[in-house]
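Researcher: Please predict.
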Amino acid sequence: MGYFDGTHLYEHADPRRVSTGWNSDIFNLGRNEVRSFLLSSALFWFEKYHIDGLRVDAVASMLYLDYGRRAGEWIPNRYGGRENLEAIGFLRMLNETVYRDFPDATMIAEESTAWPMVSRPTDVGGSASV
C-alpha cells in the first residue's frame, strides 16, 4: 500500500514516523480514510469468513511514538508526550466496533510493553485507554 498513488496516501511522509525495527511504513491513523480502510478490512474478515478473532501485530510500535528511537528521532504528540494518540484512538475504535458487532470475538494484541488491557472492551477500561 505504500505510495499507492505515488504520494503518502496511507502512510506518514515524515521519516520520523517510519518503523525503525522493520524499516516499514506506519499507517497514518490520523487520516479518516486510513482508519476507515483498516476498520472495514477487519469487519470484512468477521462478516465474510466468520473468523473468531483478530490479532494486531506490533502494537507497541503503534502505541509509542518513541518506540525503538533515540532522542530527536521522533515527534511528540500534541501534549508533548510519547503516546501515539491517533493509534490509541484507532485501537479504541477497532475494539469498540468489533465487540459491538461481534460480542463473542477475541481481540489479541501483540504488545511487548506494559500497556494495560490494550485489547479489552472500553466499557471495562480496555482498548488502549490512557
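Model: The CA atoms of residues 38 and 94 lie 9 Å apart.
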